[in-house]
């Protein structure tokens, strides 16, 4: 019960007992300021260049599908009495989107894989407070949705370079 650690927070039982809105709102809720700040910083670097390449509607679709896939993975893979919140799953989805864009455009995606690998290691060894299920679900959702949604026009290697340059240095926070 992540919300129970925040003094004065209200705890709703969860999706399984009728709080269906938590499937999406969990991606916009954070229990700790550092978690919120890290996610906002990652989105600040990843969001604008990805939106420029994908277009606003596709970017929003990728972000929301990533958030929903993160929640679905937590509900499917985590213990029934566990909880997770934060935008980290959606941020991992943005990393998946970046990887697909780089791959589709013939760009150099080894650096993206390296940063993604670092974040996976942080997720796995980072402790009990990190939801590997949410991160994995978001990554798969963002990768899948970007592959399906395609690009706005033809994605060039310069687009990938611009996205990677603005985003790679901060993804280690997630």
Describe the structure.
The protein has 174 residues and is mostly helical. Helix content is 64%, strand content 0%. The protein is built from 7 helices and no strands. The radius of gyration is 16 Å and the shape is globular. Mean pLDDT is 79; it is low at 159-174.
What distinguishing features does this structure have?
174 residues, 7 helices, disordered C terminus, mainly alpha, 64% helix, 0% strand
What's the short story on this structure?
With 174 residues, the protein is mainly α.
* Rg calculated over all Cα atoms: 16 Å
Which runs of at least 5 residues are low in confidence (pLDDT < 50)?
159-174
Structural class: mainly alpha
Largest beta-sheet details: none
Strand content: under 5%
Average pLDDT, all residues:
79
Helix count, DSSP H or I runs of 4 or more residues: 7
Q: What is the chain-wise order of helices and strands? A: HHHHHHH
Number of strands: 0
Helical content class: 55-70%
- What shape does the CA trace take? globular
The end-to-end span amounts to 21 Å
Which quaternary structure do these chains form?
single chain
């Amino acid at each position: 019960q992540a919300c129970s650690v925040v003094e004065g927070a209200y705890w709703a039982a969860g999706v399984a007992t009728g709080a269906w809105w938590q499937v999406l709102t969990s991606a916009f809720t954070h229990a700790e300021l550092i978690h919120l700040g890290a996610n906002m910083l990652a989105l600040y670097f990843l969001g604008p260049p990805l939106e420029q390449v994908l277009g606003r509607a596709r970017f929003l679709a990728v972000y929301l599908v990533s958030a929903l896939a993160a929640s679905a993975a937590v509900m499917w893979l985590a213990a029934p009495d566990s909880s997770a919140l934060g935008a980290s799953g959606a941020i991992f989805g943005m990393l998946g989107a970046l990887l697909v864009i780089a791959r589709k455009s013939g760009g150099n995606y080894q650096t993206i894989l390296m940063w993604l690998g670092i974040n996976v290691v942080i997720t796995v060894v980072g402790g009990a407070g990190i939801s590997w299920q949410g991160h994995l679900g978001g990554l798969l959702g963002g990768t899948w949705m970007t592959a399906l949604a395609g690009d706005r026009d033809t994605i060039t290697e310069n687009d990938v370079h611009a996205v990677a340059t603005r985003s790679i240095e901060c993804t280690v926070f997630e």
